[in-house]
Amino acid sequence: MGGRKMKKWLVFLMITIAVTVFLVGCQAEKEETTETGPVGRTVLNVYAGQSEEENLELLVRAYEAKNNDTVIQVHLIPDSEYTQQMMRIKNKEAEADCIFFPDAGEAAIWKNKKILKDLNSWYKGTEEANYYAPWYEALDDKEACYYIPYRLGKLCVYYNKTLFDSLGVKYPAEGWTWEEYKEKARKLTGWSNNKKVYGTLGFESSSSWWMLPARTRGAYNPFNPQDLELFRESAEWCHEFTSEFAEAFPYLARTGDEWSGYHKLFLEGRLGMYFGEDGEVNMINQEMKKQGLSFEYDVAELPAWEDDDKTDVYTTAVVTMAESTKYPEEAYRFMKFCVGEEGGRLLAGNSTVSAWQSPSVQNRYLTATRIPEHANYFLMDSVPAENAVGVLYNAGIEAMCNEVSMYLLAEQELNYTFENIEKELKELKAK
User: Which CATH class is domain 42-152+315-378?
Assistant: First the structure.
């Protein structure tokens, strides 16, 4: 009897040990998968703004399919939380390998705060380095490279063809001017079905849209006296534009980035023209299909200043590597995929203009983007000279915009405004 009990006890003990070992093993495997991904696979933590969600989903899916040794975790950041998230990365409270920025100027700020890694160990001498070399002529530090262009946003004028036709207004023609833009806005402004129709949006004082006429003349650096004079003329023109039309255009409530703002007016047929990049094509087309709308729209190139050659205006989204990355080789391999031919073709197939614009990528974009008719205007005609900027440039732009906002609000005179700007720019350069 005692022997049988002993055998039962031994069997029970062996089963208990086996179950315990199994459970511990499963828990260890679970913890390993949660923290570092499946065994043998590198996990890259990638950060980007919410507007990049669709593009990154395409790129990540394709990259992981080709590289089964890598898992990419995308962390989308609301615009209002970009600074907080960057500080968490800087303080090593969050692991990061790659960071996508909406423009090069934003990346320059965080490069100066030492959270971005110099890429030259991987970038120098590569195909992508040769392709993007002309973009970096204005870099503060020509011996280092901290970001690579990934997506290119060329500003154009979206216009409602149906509204133009109903009012007998001619479409914008190639080579049109800012004065013609103003005149078309005047003709399009009025009332329809007891609702206000706006020819275009106003140059709201707290935004930087007032710089656009100057930028189409090639101005981008306020520390350059010639550029500063063009910014002055641009501010004066926009002040006259808004003063002349008084209450004809919406301002604060309609000039933000929310879809419910000016895009809604455009879809309702109550906004004739507005400035935008290629990324809005997908949003408009999807909303038109969703709502069953049948109006026609197109895009035109930005107006030119009278008797001046026109310079295209771009916003360049860039990708960077975090200084704290544990996997620089793997991180750069993903970056290379995004900024080169493969990534460019994927973006183009989704009607998104990539920075890499080989003939095959451009053809793919035009094939995928049937509406609007002149989607080709979004493609690059020349290298965006203002792409590579620095912290000093950003500070100068901010100082200039702060002063001009007071001028546009009619709180101070033009001469006084630009005297203040010149003083502030001198102080910034002296630091």
Answer: alpha beta
Given this chain, do its domains 42-152+315-378 and 156-313+388-429 carry the same CATH topology?
A: yes
Query: What does 250-264 look like in DSSP terms, one character per residue?
Result: --GGGSSS-IIIIIH
Q: Which amino acid is at 413?
A: E
Statement: 156-313+388-429 belongs to CATH 3.40.190.10: yes
* Cβ pair 184, 199 in contact under 8 A: yes
User: Is the separation of the CB atoms in 163 and 411 below 8 Å?
Assistant: no
Q: Return d(Cα 203, Cα 409) in angstroms, integer.
A: 11
- CA Rg value for the chain: 27
Token digits of residue 341: 């031919």
Is residue 145 within a helix (H) or strand (E), and if so which, with residue range? none
Consecutive H or E run containing 172: none
Q: Which of 48-62, 198-212, 416-430 has the lowest mean pLDDT?
A: 198-212
Q: What is the DSSP letter of 94?
A: S
CA distance 63 to 337: 8
Q: Which two tokens stand for residue 393?
A: 């440039």
Q: Answer for the pair 319, 147: CB distance below 8 angstroms, yes or no.
A: yes
Dist. CA 295–CA 160, nearest whole Å: 8
Task: Identify the weakest region by mean pLDDT among 30-39, 43-52, 92-101.
Answer: 30-39
Q: DSSP secondary-structure letter at 246?
A: G
| CA atoms of 342 and 59, how far apart (whole Å) | 9
CB within 8 Å of 363: residues ≥ 6 apart: none
Domain boundaries, the chain: 42-152+315-378, 156-313+388-429
Pairing of strands 314-321, 147-154: antiparallel
Q: How far is CA 254 from CA 203, 211, 234, 400, in A?
A: 11, 18, 22, 23
H helix intervals, 37-159: 53-66, 82-90, 104-112, 120-123, 127-132
pTM equals: 0.84
Phi-psi map region of 415: left, alpha, beta (phi>0 left; psi -120 to 50 alpha): alpha
DSSP-derived secondary structure letter, 261: I
Question: According to the model, what pLDDT value does residue 47 have?
Answer: 97
With beta carbons less than 8 A apart as the criterion, state whether 320 and 99 touch: yes
Q: How many CB atoms lie within 10 A of CB 183?
A: 14
Q: What is the mean pLDDT of the chain?
A: 85
